């Protein structure tokens, strides 16, 4: 669960709030599914400037940061935007644009260059926002683990190049000549340089850090926001945190993101934060197929799929492009096609690690088969701890795979 900062009182004008502090306050709204009807989700829904106004207003009210006289005025007004509070929130929204956190966009034919009502405009999160949200998500998740920072993927393998942090060893033909001067001189001081032999040379080993290509498969089918629980927002937070972790700590790695529902689609990390639920079904086979296509382009030591889902496979893309769907039970036709894609992953040396947000008996059985087939792992988690499982698994996985 995301950490909430409580403010006893804010001194000064609200529009003097720092943009990064404001982004921290509204991050759940920016990543959430608030505008999506759980019974009729719209995957193309995009937030408007009105949504942003409401998110800021709610964040300020929840934290008790609105002065009483300003709050009373707003509660008695027909239009909050016309009050002092509304005007200060408008200035905060302008500051978010000026500081590069959001970019206002208008629908075709609507106001340009600042014309038109704010409600007519949509907004997009910028790369700066995505980086900020990824950092915040990572810090919150790692804080829950009691970790202050994350390093590179250490393995028990050593190479005589890269970074000299390993143990000493005698030089062997083929090693990179990372000489340890002190140890080498100690071997030859007694007999002189003219008697130097290959066995006198001592090198310092470098820790070998393997590279990994990861595709994160995110289930965004209907069930991810049904039953009174939003499972998709925590999944997006995990994905953003993983993207930030890889970019800042493992620059040799790559990560891509695939949404799967009635079909599967790759989404850039810049569009991930505002991705919405829908359509309805779970085309796991399509997601696995697309993930394999993306991983084939990568030249990495290891390739893995991280699948986050809460439902059984219930859809399949037919050879002619039509979508076959069956939401009732585990359809043998859908299951067979899905397991064939899992077998293809195994043949390609791709490990599939599955993070389940439900415990339906049929689903448990399906996940067990996937895990056994690819020698992967399965975790049965909740929206509140999935981030910790995903990040810790990622940071330890390469050691296990290499060895």
Automatic annotation (TrEMBL):
Residues 211-394 form the VWFA domain. This is von Willebrand factor, type A. It comes from the Bacteria. Gene3D superfamilies: von Willebrand factor, type A domain. InterPro entries: VWF_A, vWFA_dom_sf. SMART domains: VWA.
């Amino acid at each position: 669960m995301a950490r909430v900062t409580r403010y006893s009182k804010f001194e000064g004008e609200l529009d003097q709030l720092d943009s990064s502090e404001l982004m921290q306050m509204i991050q759940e709204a920016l990543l959430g599914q608030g505008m999506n009807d759980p019974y009729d989700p719209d995957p193309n829904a995009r937030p408007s400037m009105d949504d942003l106004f409401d998110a800021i207003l709610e964040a300020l009210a929840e934290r008790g940061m609105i002065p009483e006289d300003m709050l009373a005025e707003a509660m008695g007004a027909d239009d909050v935007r016309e009050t002092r509070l509304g005007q200060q929130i408008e200035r905060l929204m302008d500051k978010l644009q000026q500081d590069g956190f959001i970019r206002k966009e208008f629908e075709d034919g609507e106001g340009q260059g600042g014309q038109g009502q704010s409600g007519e405009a949509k907004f997009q999160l910028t790369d700066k926002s995505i980086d900020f949200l990824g950092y915040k998500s990572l810090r919150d998740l790692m804080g829950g683990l009691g970790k202050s920072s994350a390093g590179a993927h250490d393995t028990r393998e050593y190479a005589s190049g890269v970074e000299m942090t390993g143990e000493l060893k005698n030089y062997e033909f083929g090693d990179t000549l990372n000489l340890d001067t002190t140890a080498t001189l100690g071997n030859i001081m007694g007999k002189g340089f003219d008697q130097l032999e290959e066995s006198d040379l001592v090198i310092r080993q470098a820790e070998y850090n393997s590279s990994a290509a990861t595709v994160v498969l995110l289930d965004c089918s209907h069930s991810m926001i049904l039953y009174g629980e939003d499972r998709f927002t925590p999944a997006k937070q995990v994905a953003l945190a993983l993207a930030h972790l890889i970019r800042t700590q493992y620059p040799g790695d790559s990560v891509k993101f695939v949404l799967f529902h009635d079909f599967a689609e790759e989404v850039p990390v810049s569009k991930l934060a505002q991705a919405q639920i829908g359509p309805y079904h779970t085309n796991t086979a399509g997601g696995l197929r697309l993930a394999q296509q993306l991983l084939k382009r990568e030249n990495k030591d290891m390739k893995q799929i991280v699948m986050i889902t809460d439902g059984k496979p219930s859809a399949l893309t037919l050879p002619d492009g039509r979508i076959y769907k069956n939401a009732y039970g585990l359809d043998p036709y859908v299951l067979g096609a899905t397991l064939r894609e899992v077998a293809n992953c195994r043949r390609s040396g791709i490990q599939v690690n599955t993070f389940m947000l439900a415990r339906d008996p049929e689903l448990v059985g399906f996940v067990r088969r996937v895990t056994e087939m690819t020698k992967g792992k399965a975790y049965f988690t909740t929206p509140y701890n999935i981030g910790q499982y995903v990040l810790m698994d990622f940071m330890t996985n390469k050691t296990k795979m290499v060895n």
